[in-house]
Design a protein that fits this description.
Largest sheet of chain A: 7 strands, mixed
Mean pLDDT of chain A: 93
Helix content of chain A: under 10%
Low-confidence stretches of chain A: none
Low-confidence stretches of chain B: none
Shape of chain A: globular
Strand content of chain B: over 45%
Largest interface: A-B, 27 and 26 residues
Mean pLDDT of chain B: 92
Order of helices and strands of chain B: EEEEEEEEEEEE
Number of strands of chain B: 12
Order of helices and strands of chain A: EEEEEEEEEEE
Number of strands of chain A: 11
Helix content of chain B: under 10%
Oligomer: heterodimer
Number of helices of chain B: 0
Structural class of chain B: mainly beta
Amino acid sequence: DAGITQSPRYKITETGRQVTLMCHQTWSHSYMFWYRQDLGHGLRLIYYSAAADITDKGEVPDGYVVSRSKTENFPLTLESATRSQTSVYFCASISGGSTDTQYFGPGTRLTVL
Amino acid sequence: GDSVTQMEGPVTLSEEAFLTINCTYTATGYPSLFWYVQYPGEGLQLLLKATKADDKGSNKGFEATYRKETTSFHLEKGSVQVSDSAVYFCALILSGSARQLTFGSGTQLTVLP
């Protein structure tokens, strides 16, 4: 099915562990994004990518790493998870124009103990 | 920097009541404005959008008008239903930007039968 998927949907990990959240889209959209959702903050941008091999920092990038070797995939890695990274993570994509609809994945709920 | 300020929630209404959720923005350029809705346990879905001043976005009985003079994009619905219970996010994208959305903090709406 066409769309944007995230895995895993739920993850529990411990402080200091490395965690990778996966995002896959089937539309070949140029732009992809990672947001985190926390109560009282809405969604905040972590990293984004304008195309394969092009990534840039968003509002809250510290503690996260991204890569984009293929257009359809945009994994987010927490190199050494901290409790403050407990959140719901959303991946999104947009085809190109700033007036276009940005499509969101179903989210990954991450708990860091 | 660019920002979106949304009416604080939560909002509780009876079925068939009139809904207004206020949204104002600050932007250095000419943004496109969006309302996204998040149903429980799901990702965000585009509800409506407006790309230039005086445009009215509408969908599923919801409306919002892009008011440049008041930098506002208030969401309205004449008669809410229980199924409208969700979190509503106002957001903007600047033209010429990297397409990232800037979100308000979200408003939780509960509609009681």
